[in-house]
Amino acid sequence: MYEYIKALHIIFVVTWFAGLFYLPRLFIYHVESENRPNEAVKAALQEQFVIMQRRLWYGITWPSCILAIAFGSSMLSHWLPLSENPWLMTKLGFVFFLFLYHLSLGHILKKQRAGLKSFTSTQLRIWNELSSVFLIAIVFLVVLKNLLGMFQAIAGLVTLMIVLMSAIMLYKKIRQ
Q: 173 in helix, strand or coil?
């Protein structure tokens, strides 16, 4: 039964991340639609983005989050005591922060629905990359099951973040 639960956990982690990757992109498009000169086009785009965001959030992202955590939690007894698996404790820490990131997207969603634009498209692009950082850290921990591998992965993450930030800034300059 453990292998079936693990498979379901992986499936819902993948769909959860799909939502975490795509929702910030919709936020970016929503913010960028503000620059449309035609008011009718701008209103139509923003209405459509609100619909897409709501469906993604409540139809895919939240259910996948709940099921990924539920199936993951049901596998914890296989790894007890947790103190003998420091990689898993670290992974659970990353999952906790991933869940906080998830909640932050809900906060941004509520603000956008209320018509409040508190983030620029560049800030949202940077925020969007955080889910990639969580994914990489968690996958390396699960696959390598050791903290040394995690530290090497984090060093790679820092490098990746620098590359991503540089790419975002370069993209912004090219667009201007």
A: helix
